[in-house]
Amino acid sequence: MSKRAIEIYDTTLRDGSQAIDVAFSADDKIRIAYKLDELGVHFIEGGWPGSNPKDIEFFRAMKKAPPVHAKVVAFGSTRKAALRVQNDPNLQALLKADTEVITIFGKSWVLHVSTALGISRAKNLELISDSIDYLRSHDKSVIYDAEHFFDGFKADPDYALQTLEHAAKAGATRLVLCDTNGAAMPWEIREIVTKVSKETKTPLGIHAHNDGEMAVANSLMAVRSGATQVQGTINGIGERCGNANLCSIAPNLKLKMGRECLTSEQLQKLHEVSRFVYEIANLPPDKRQPYVGEAAFTHKGGVHIHAVEKHPTTYEHVTPEAVGNRRRLLISDSAGRSAVVAKAKDFNLSLSKTSPQLGALLRELKDREHQGFQFEGAEGSFELLMRKAIGSSVQSFELLGFRVIVEKRDVTQGTVSEATIMVRVGDRVEHCAADGNGPVHALDNALRKALELFYPELRDVQLRDYKVRVLTGEKGTASKVRVLIVSGDHEREWNTVGVSDNIIDASWQALADSIELCLLREHMSKPRTLPKKSPRRGHAKSRSVTRTV
Predict the structure, then answer these.
(1) What pLDDT shows up at residue 335?
(2) What is the pLDDT of the chain when averaged over all its residues?
(3) Pick the CATH number of 7-281 from 3.20.20.70, 3.90.180.10, 3.30.70.360, 3.40.630.30
(4) Are strands 481-488 and 462-470 parallel, antiparallel or unpaired?
């Protein structure tokens, strides 16, 4: 990398997963990792392989199908004081993760050395040197995170610098200064990073927490003072008040400070990646989040709208497209037209600002958004909505009705769910039943079984994720909910959404859109011939299915 370039080190999968209300599965972490790779981050910290089975599974998957650009990093600590490096389970787990890069943290603050570890200062320096030297002897590139460095430097600068010196001599390729408690102020960061940069030739990094609402400012100040690596998380999720927010840091570095970190094309994916992580984490997106929030480029006041329509820079500090976001004019008749037309091009649809269908489509979108629909994370449903509006969709099936039964037959056994559904395809009617591991699973099974006779390609489609979000909690369990479904086959993946005050109805909307979109795309790629009509036309063909698909 050039002298002015900054490395982006993402720790969403490790530090971010330690945030309150966040619990990533191994599959979640894998999906996020590939999305981060698309964004262009340089390092993806996958987790602590010695701490839980999910992280072990993640590293195994990354080894089989590694990211294209980013380097996957395993994270851990220096060896235990009572163990040799060869016998330390943490170091052995780091090696078994089989990553090219390993990050380990050690103590920089004398308070932690004496109180948390209960060892001498000299012993702590030995732990740092031994651990890094051992990992380097196994041909690993080692990044050293100096935990609590700024608190440690303020308490005893000489000892804090000694910890860095031992890490550098042992072969650490980066020395990352950590504001672990989030207590430092930007002027302290500037002073300390400037001093440290004069004491070492090893490249410096910054790892800031947000307890004082200074994580982004501190990270940028560290870069101005000599740091060349910035660690953080997408949307700033993390322990306590969170980590430094990469969704603010990356555009500030590139657009405001002129420091290369992501390409312009990669930066345009920022909004998409932000929303993706929110959805996977099952967290409501922060509308007012800088750069990537829904409100970041939204204008409501009449004076603002009038000025922005003449020249966007009157009330926008950067162009929304630079970070993949879009401008919203809440009380303007033209609000959203450009965004919808641009999205139509993505779907290979013919739609312009003068198309007669555009007005009706915009009214439908606004109505659905008012109901609680969100299409940023459900482009499959948005594509269907758009195709229906301009008349380019072909209905693959018609729902005639369904019934879902949830029954507790024995207090010592689990709950039984069964769904019965009737659909029409062409002039044929199929009536099927299926059970499942819950009402939505049973409904999904019944629908697929009814349609597989006509559309055998559905056997390759899997429901990969299912999330429910309560939109209004005032009514308790009767509140309106939004259901997001992720489906996929061997080649692709798509997201659909449903909204209702009945969770089964919302789930049906998302399920139906998922199947409909799959069949529509298949129909567009190759014409389909339906089975000949049933000899019992007008009567439902009944079949019972009880196996779990």
Answers:
(1) 46
(2) 89
(3) 3.20.20.70
(4) antiparallel
Arithmetic mean of pLDDT, 55-62: 95
Question: Would you state the structure tokens that stand for residue 79, as one six-digit string?
Answer: 């060896």
**Band of pLDDT at residue 353, cut at 50, 70 and 90:** confident
Paired strand residues for 175:
144, 204
C-alpha dihedral sign at 171, 174, 180, 184: positive
Q: Span 297-335: which CATH code?
A: 4.10.430.20
Q: Is 0.85 topped by the overall pTM?
A: no
B/e letters for 136-164, b = 16+ CB within 10 Å, e = fewer, are beeebbbbbbbbbbbbbbeebeebbbbbb
- pLDDT of 376 > 80? The answer is no
Predicted pLDDT at 167: 98
7-281 matches 297-335 in fold: no
53 φ/ψ angles, rounded to the nearest 5 degrees: -65, -30
Q: What span, in angstroms and rounded, lies between the C-alpha atoms of 190 and 188?
A: 5
- 336-549 is classed in which CATH architecture? 2-Layer Sandwich (3.30)
Q: Burial of 98 by CB count in 10 Å (0-12 exposed, 13-18 middle, 19+ buried)? A: middle
Place of tokens 């922060």: 286
Q: What is the pLDDT of residue 541?
A: 39
Domain extent listing, the chain: 7-281, 297-335, 336-549
- Reduced to 3 states (helix: H, G, I; strand: E, B; else coil), residue 485 is strand
Q: What is the mean pLDDT of residues 173-191?
A: 98
